[in-house]
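#structure-requests
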Amino acid sequence: MPLFDRVKAGAAQAVQKAQEAGQAGQAKLNDIQAARHLDSLFRDLGSATYDQHVGRATSDTAATIERLYGEIEAHEAEHGKDAGAASSSTGTTSTPATDTGTGGAPAGDFKLD
């Protein structure tokens, strides 16, 4: 195989690997953007719900809450329910403790000495 053919084959292989890396990077970027959008929706929902709870609701707060529920459901249908998992690697999300009827204590076998 002449030198030119080997160089040409190597260049074609390098271009293919670069394209694959670019596609993988774009997919990762899309996942991160989807997770950030979902975080934003949940933050807005929490804010509107809190405003409603403390009596600062406006005439359109209930409609805003319903709209956010719909957007979250649509997002989960499009990206899957675990689309926010990308943000959990950065520590921005947490799993709340469930109330087991023990006065709000989290479930588990924890002992303080």
